[in-house]
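Postdoc handover notes: sequence design on the structure in folder B. Input tokens:
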């Protein structure tokens, strides 16, 4: 990126100095968390529907990820005492505030996936020759 001399460069703290920052980035940067947050951004969902929309996630991983997101205040959980129990998940206001940046990231990936795939092929070909 080209920065002019007049443009101040923002200094970010190193992630090693911010353990909570690293923890939160690990959580929201996890592929399952991104899928869950984006899916819940459209509407509150029951567990099985959320699992279906997050193709490939195991029941154990979905449960674990939802617990972490609930602990961080990003997801809410509502249990309705029916037979069987009905459990629904949705985004808290904090989770909703995360939706725009994550949606932008997902859109960026979708816009650039062909270019990334092409770069990977070129990289792999170049490094195959060196091995």
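Designed sequence:
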């Amino acid at each position: 990126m080209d920065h002019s001399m007049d443009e101040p460069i923002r200094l970010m703290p190193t992630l090693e100095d911010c353990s909570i920052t690293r923890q939160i980035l690990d959580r929201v940067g996890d592929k399952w968390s991104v899928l869950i947050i984006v899916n819940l951004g459209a509407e509150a969902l029951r567990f099985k529907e959320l699992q279906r929309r997050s193709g490939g996630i195991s029941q154990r991983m979905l449960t674990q990820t939802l617990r972490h997101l609930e602990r961080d205040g990003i997801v809410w959980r509502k249990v309705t005492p029916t037979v069987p129990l009905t459990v629904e998940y949705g985004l808290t206001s904090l989770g909703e505030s995360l939706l725009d940046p994550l949606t932008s990231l997902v859109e960026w990936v979708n816009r650039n996936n062909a270019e990334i795939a092409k770069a990977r092929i070129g990289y792999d070909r170049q490094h195959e020759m060196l091995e």
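Context for whoever picks this up: The first strand starts at residue 45 and ends at 46. Don't rerun without checking with the PI first.
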